[in-house]
User: Which sequence fits this backbone?
């Protein structure tokens, strides 16, 4: 009975539509898979889709709820099966294989000029592969330090600002000073250690991935790349200023310890502020601090959230027009506020709502000019390198199971073997 009901529903959904998404009455339907997950973000996205549909009766956008869990494999299956949504929500560091594999449309010349001119060139580089642009980078998230403001104030340490941040060496000394009596200066949630390590390493001048004259990428774990991982390793194993138990945790897992006074600071993505506002006990005083700076200043890598159009979409012009509507400055602000992130658009970034001291918005916005494309964003084979080589190697290094020499050998030798398969 249930199977028959499902079949009837599918027939009703498909009735009146041709294979190219055009109804018998000429109306176009575009399927938009959104990965928005926070309540405010989902509401903002759904509202904008509804506003588009109300003002564009001939081009209807159908909202499809997706999930960040295993999105790469889910999209790959959909692309290969010819069932991908017309408009794809993803992240910039996941696009390379899809772009080079021919699954995404080149948006060059399709997007409204107002949108292409408003987003800085450094952001467009995150979605540019070869000579094509395969996604619109629209939301970005710096990594920041979420700190127990009372603890820092009572300790008398210098509180950093975007103008005068801590160096990595000073950060290590501060966390050591804040530790003792079963409490830690910092808790590093490194269940997924790769992006945090690589993106923060830009502040120390790290690069890790090097593209040769032949266009091929190799991994070199040089001195600048070692500053951040060495700092973390020393905080955990030498100073005992970082909690060893959080190394296998996700960001959310560290919040109860932050609230309970076990950790003075936790390095987290900017959007975690929403969870803190929702979960922090009454009276908990917290603040947002910039991540430490090094030879590269406050630079850090980001992999913006992106919106792409599938190569198989038969209505690319209409899909691009929807993206132009969805990402108008005022709409980009709505999406950013809903996701507790920063917009990429220069006009959206000027919105007063993003420059308030409340909940650390002003600190995050001050970091926007220092955000750079994540080192891995154009590396083919990065998902496999990350999962099979870098993640286990970094986890073992941070836990003390292997040393720096072994870490370098695994990232370079094992890693280059993986990447070579994608660059033949």
Assistant:
């Amino acid at each position: 009975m249930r199977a028959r009901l499902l079949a009837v529903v599918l027939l009703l959904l498909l009735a009146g539509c041709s294979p190219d998404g055009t109804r018998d009455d000429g109306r176009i339907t575009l399927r938009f898979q959104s990965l928005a997950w926070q309540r405010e973000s989902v509401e903002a996205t759904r509202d904008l889709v509804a506003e588009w549909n109300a003002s564009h009766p001939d081009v209807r956008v159908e909202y499809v709820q997706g999930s960040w869990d295993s999105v790469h494999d889910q999209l790959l299956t959909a692309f290969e099966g010819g069932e991908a949504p017309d408009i794809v929500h993803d992240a910039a560091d996941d696009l390379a294989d899809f772009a080079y594999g021919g699954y995404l449309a080149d948006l060059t010349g399709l997007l409204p000029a107002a949108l292409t001119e408003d987003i800085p060139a450094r952001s467009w580089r995150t979605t540019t592969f070869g000579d094509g642009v395969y996604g619109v980078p629209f939301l970005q998230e710096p990594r920041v330090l979420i700190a127990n403001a009372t603890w820092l104030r009572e300790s008398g340490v210098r509180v950093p600002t975007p103008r005068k941040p801590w160096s990595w060496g000073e950060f290590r000394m501060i966390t050591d000073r804040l530790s003792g009596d079963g409490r830690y200066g910092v808790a590093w949630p490194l269940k997924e250690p790769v992006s945090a390590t690589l993106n923060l390493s830009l502040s120390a001048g790290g690069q890790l991935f090097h593209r040769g004259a032949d266009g091929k990428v190799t991994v070199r774990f040089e001195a600048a790349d070692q500053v951040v991982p060495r700092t973390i390793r020393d905080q955990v194993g030498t100073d005992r200023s970082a909690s060893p138990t959080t190394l296998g945790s996700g960001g959310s897992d560290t919040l109860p310890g932050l609230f309970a006074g076990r950790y003075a600071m936790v390095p987290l993505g900017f959007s975690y502020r929403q969870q803190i506002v929702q979960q922090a006990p009454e009276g908990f005083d917290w603040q947002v601090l910039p991540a430490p700076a090094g030879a590269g200043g406050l630079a850090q890598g980001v992999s913006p959230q992106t919106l792409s159009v599938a190569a198989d979409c038969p209505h690319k012009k209409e899909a691009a027009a929807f993206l132009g509507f969805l990402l108008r400055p005022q709409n980009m602000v709505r999406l950013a506020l809903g996701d507790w992130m920063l917009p990429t658009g220069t006009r959206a970034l000027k919105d007063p709502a993003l420059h308030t001291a409340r909940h650390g918005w002003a600190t995050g916005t001050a970091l926007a000019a220092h955000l750079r494309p994540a080192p891995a964003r154009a590396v083919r084979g990065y998902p496999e390198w990350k999962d099979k080589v870098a993640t286990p190697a970094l986890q073992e290094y941070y836990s003390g199971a292997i040393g720096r020499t072994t870490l370098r050998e695994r990232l370079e030798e094992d890693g280059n073997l993986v990447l070579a398969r994608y660059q033949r």
Notes: The CA atoms of residues 230 and 383 lie 24 Å apart. The chain has a mean pLDDT of 93.
